[in-house]
Automatic annotation (TrEMBL):
The keyword Translocase does not apply. This is Flagellar basal-body rod protein FlgC. It holds the Pfam family Flg_bbr_C. Belongs to the flagella basal body rod proteins family. It comes from Kumtagia ephedrae.
Amino acid sequence: MDALTATLKVAASGLGAQSERLRVVSENLANAQSTGQAPGADPYRRKTISFAAELDRASGGSLVEVVKIDRDQADFPVEFMPGHEAADDGGYVKMPNVNVMIEMADMTEANRSYEANLQVIKQARQLISLTIDLMRPQS
């Protein structure tokens, strides 16, 4: 496999990983206020995503792969909301362990990584096109 094709494969794996990361972040943000349905019930638990590099024997490149999507085991913050359906006897409600600022920063980083991989693909495609043009007989 040539270097340009290997580059495309590596960048494509990065696109897939960052796309999955954006999906997880979006789900966390969408559920940032999702409390339990009954008194004392647990609210939405933040999802986390783990990646690993995997050697692609065909190209010799390291591809990024989603290893697992897990749940953040951090404690739930509590808020005093005595009239809420999920309030315990003391009037406290367990809130999701989602920090919107962290999720927004993670989304920005994932978006930039996605864009960088997209640029690599565009550049590799341009180089492949230029190579093909150079191989054409000149008239």
